[in-house]
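To: structure subgroup
Subject: Chain for Friday's discussion

All,

I'm putting the inputs and outputs inline so they're searchable in the archive.
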Amino acid sequence: METRRIQKLDEFTASKIAAGEVVERPAMVVKELVENAIDAGADEIVIDVKNGGKKSIRVSDNGSGIHLEDLTLVFERHATSKIRSIEDLYDTHSLGFRGEALSSICAVSQIEMITMCEGDSYGTKIQAAGGKILKQSEVGAIRGTTITIKDLFFNTPARLKFLKSDQAEGRSITELVSTLAISHPEIAFKYVNDDKLVFHTPGKGDLGNAIFSIYEAGILGHLHKISESHDDISIHGFVSKFDYTKGTKSHQLTFVNGRYVKSDVVKEVVQMAYKPYLMSNRHAVCFLFIKVPPSSVDVNIHPAKTEIKFHDEGKIKQLIYMALKKSFNLYDQVPKVTFSEKEVFVKPSVRDAQEIKTTEHGPVSIEQDVIKLEKKVPIAPKYSPPAFKPEKVDFEAISQMNAFVEDLVRESPEIIRDSVYYGLDYIGVFDKTYLLFEKNSQLVMIDQHAAHEKILYEQFMRAFKSQEIASQMLLIPETVELDALDMSSLDQMASFIKNMGFDFERFGNSTVILREIPSLLSIQSAKLMFSEILEGTRTGMDDHFEEKLASRACKAAIKAYDTIEAIEVDALVEQLTSLESPYTCPHGRPIVIQFGKHEIERKFKRIL
């Protein structure tokens, strides 16, 4: 490949792309150095950081190296080999192009650079600090460039003060290097953090192997390939099956022309395509590579170059949506159960209001699907039972029902709970999943899994809020396989995880041994929760993180087809009466539905 020489841009071009300071955190330093290595044609890159990059950052590559005559321009601002004029901005093929990175890095750190080009008889070593070259000498070397950054921000203590902890900065670097390695599977990346090997990708051009090297071992079994092209736009990569989701969008990675980007456009269309198949607050996993003509995308929006703008967003959306839908059709993943009516809540008719009888709780109508208390409580929702048809699940209706019922519970919790769970006579179970009860000439069905899930959810929330989570010791310790990003979160999250009832220790570079787990959870649920605690740290712990976390912890509930005895049924119903919100599970699915005698008799043609 032809090596383009470094030259200083003219003032007009430099002013058009000026971005100010590009070095704010150690991860930004790593990004600039690695992207330079990629642009130099390297197929092997080694990244070694210490103390979250604050102490040192070293990036080595086997790329083209820097010509001896160009070394004096390396640390000059707006000196670059990537572009020559303003017109080149609209046809940029390289990751970097501003010529600001090394200048900005040198201004706030101590730099040592060793570089050598093909055919040179020796390499060159440059030492610089505070924006000035201090020493230049000849050294023995091999083709490529090694840059070592030490004591970042040594001369700007105010900026150093605003850095996060070593663990937090190190995690940001891990996330960054992971995206760079995924974006270039043809390059072998070796990443070392505080003398520990985090991952090493093979660099053979196989995207699946790169993903396998970085993420959890079983991830590829949950993904399938996607590929589509139209005109001069193409898309390929991996997307998850419907049963493999995450609680955040941190596993939705988009790459445009080999560059990792953050695109709301892409995430919007992914969410749109997956929405009919996933529960609320669950997100697909995807690694999408989009290739477009450089002139059809603007990467000159932000110095980090992760924010881009497509000139034809509609065309991009259509192609992604079409590719996803086509991939869905290759697998039998369409849900077979749906709710037949979108109108979930029905106000009483005049006839309903007239058919009022008296019970111990006051005047009620027994002919409706849900008991209503006349003039004392808002009308509870009339819920249509699921019809077994191969249609899409109307999760929007479920979400509306959830919100509506929660409002009712807050306004009059005792009356509503009395109207449903008190006085139930257990008569059997349908399909080893739905518990059947009789009450006031009504048939009541309770989903045993959803009910137990909500009970555990509220127990866990109470324990979490009071910091009284009990632990249970495992006779045989369990192992959890984590990816590099999760492992980098362990140190920072250790105290929080232990407060959640876990006792653990590291075992190697990608394994954690669990010795104690929260007593409320099964082993499998505890392992899942452990992983998802770390997953949540990638997007930050917002004010509702505890609620989201607790919701995920409720996987310990009894499952469909689990056989439970009558005494356990009684205990389950008793606990339901004490819940703050006893009508829906944490995911918004109904716990209980009712069928009025009038409706049943109409189905059997006993009445017309």
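Points worth raising on Friday:
Residues 11-21, 81-94, 332-417, 540-545 have pLDDT under 50 and may be disordered.
The chain has four domains: 7-205, 219-328, 350-453+562-603, 460-556.

D.
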